[in-house]
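Fresh eyes needed here. Kindly weigh in on this sequence plus structure tokens:
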Amino acid sequence: MNSFLKSAIFPLVCCHAVMAQDTHVSLANEIVDLLSQTEVCLNLCRDEESVREVVPQLQELAKLAADIKERQDKLPDLTPEEDREIASLIRTYLTLQRAIDEHVDRIIAEQLLSPELASILCISPDITPSSAPTTN
């Protein structure tokens, strides 16, 4: 491809990516990706040091979650087609949520819940293994 075509096409592709409109489906996919990244981070929490190392990543994911919520609040009502597409993601969503819950239960049981991690996960830092809710 000659340099003229490259210089003409590249800005169009980039501009299109930046101007892409959010949809309920695109945001649902972002949420699934966010949950996947959260699950990976929580899986890494195996000792106090690894918890400290993961906190900044989880803080960024929390900011991303707030951004997604803000963008979703601006969308019109869900269409029936979007509802069907989002419903197809529910199994993945539930699988990720279950894995996250299991990691949180393990982190609490192993007494690795730091105040920073508790704050990010919206968990009372005073929770103890015996008072932790169980995941079924």
